[in-house]
Amino acid sequence: EAQKETRGFQTEAKQLLHLMIHSLYSNREIFLRELVSNASDAADKLRFAAVKDDSLYEGDSELKVRVEVDKDANTITISDNGIGMTRDEVIENLGTIAKSGTAAFVQSLTGDEKKDAQLIGQFGVGFYSSFIVADKVVVRTRKAGVPADQGVRWECDGEAEFVIENIEKPARGTSIELHLKSSASEFADDWRLRSIIKKYSDHIAIPVVMQMPQAVGEDEAAQEPQEEVVNTATAMWTRSRSDVSDEEYKEFYKHVSHDFADPLTWSHNRVEGNLDYTSLLYIPAKAPFDLYNRDGARGLKLYVQRTFIMDDAEQFLPLYLRFVKGVVDSNDLSLNVSREILQKDPNIDSMRSALTKRVLDMISKLAKNEPERYAEFWKEFGQVIKEGPAEDFANREKIAKLLRFATTHTNTAAQDQSLDDYLSRMKEGQEKIYYIAAENHNTAKNSPHLEVFRKKGIEVLLLSDRVDEWLMSHLMDYDGKALQDIGKGELDLGEMDSEEDKQAQEKVAESLKPLIERVQKVLGEKVAEVRITHRLTESPACVVVPEHEMGAQMRRLLESAGQ
Ligand code: ADP
Ligand code: MG
């Protein structure tokens, strides 16, 4: 049954499509990159499925992408012999514009077209970028291993609806036919398409082929049309670093991450020896919408001897590095490896610590050599890095070096001071690193606890992120100096008080004894203890949390988590 039906997109779809077309208008040629990227993913998926069942190749295991152009009809067709899609998969994958995080995305739209355009560039639109250049798109596809009469045809004009029906499709895989807008007919040009493929899709591991241009003056009918490969067609991470240009690294990032923006930095390494593997790891420029969803998809693309195995292999990096994208290609794992096996394999643990170290080194290098770009990194991912010391005790010192704080030294909310900066400014005789944690920067900055520190010129870290107390409780010390919450316990500035100060303090204490006793009586059970403090210079009194109790911020954090 051909079952022709018309379906609508979700309500946001039209708005989203319109925005996307608008925002990507100056960079229209990327539609081809997205479609070739999808074809390559489809080839990867077929190769993986064929490891268990090679009948899926149906006698044709030379996977490739073909790009054809018809100038007269003003169409471009991109076809592959990859995994293909069933009818349900077409509806699922192409009938839902911008799947993961759509809700978050739509919520973050401001209505200001300019701002929204930047957002959408970050979000990635994949297949739908076809509509930047086309006013009608026809997809024909047939899943590997199913009969030829179970092909599917999907058609959409980029408005609110699409039409889907079953067709006969002998050739496995997917073809995407773009009917170009008259304003985009410049793309119906063989040489233009070749140069776009070279520019954006050179790194694609399977051949991208086009028909060879016909020699001028020869009898066209006499010639068999011949194909030629337009791209380099080797898995990019297998090439040596010196052979790969920055542009190629950037384009490859967009392919693996499905991101539209350039990455912040990357690290490409081959490890030989006990375990043999290649890794290509990227730090994105922008945090994804679901960064704080600890259950969200994360991880690397796993290959075994250049065969794609799985997306989102999360076993290779700790949770606090969940923003890292990239590829790991192992020569030792079995092609039959599964998530369950990955969880148990002790070799994975050693790969994980090596890859973690790689990422931390890459970030440290950025911090050292490019402080301005590091500041951008910190703005996007600093909060997640702060989860590090709790999760990864072994790398505590390394992570601590990456931390950036607001402090009383700069007295602004910007988190731009390192612990090393702090150490370099410590007072003679100062033994601890002092901090105060509050629910926001202003409260921290104006805390009465700071009075004596300001007076003595001792720097205090001003913490106001939700994770900060959690961070401090796991960090505990840095470079042999304890981290001390100045809102907690007895304050002993030790060597920093002069002999006269100490004598004066004792005298005051003696004379105030009756007052203290009275206050204690009045407050009764409401407090644990009333004592004289020398930490205030302006305010008359303040509340202090005992040394080993939870800080106010931590208490709020746990309360909000329902504990
Ligand atoms: P993404 O590639 O980020 O998943 P896209 O919008 O580019 O998003 O594609 C959406 C989905 O449609 C893909 O995840 C894939 O499941 C399916 N798809 C797209 N193109 C093809 C293709 N050529 N062959 C098989 N499936 C495809
Ligand atoms: Mg895609």
Automatic annotation (TrEMBL):
It holds the Pfam family HATPase_c_3. Keywords: ATP-binding, Chaperone, Cytoplasm, Nucleotide-binding, Stress response. Residues 1-339 are annotated as: A. InterPro entries: HATPase_C_sf, HATPase_dom, Heat_shock_protein_90_CS, HSP90_C, Hsp90_fam, Hsp90_N, Ribosomal_Su5_D2-typ_SF. It is found in: Cytoplasm. Residues 27-184 form the Histidine kinase/HSP90-like ATPase domain. Signal peptide: none annotated. Its main location: cytoplasm. It comes from the Bacteria. Belongs to the heat shock protein 90 family. NCBIfam families: PRK05218.1. Molecular chaperone. Has ATPase activity. Homodimer. HAMAP family: HSP90 (MF_00505). This is Chaperone protein HtpG. It comes from Gilvimarinus algae.
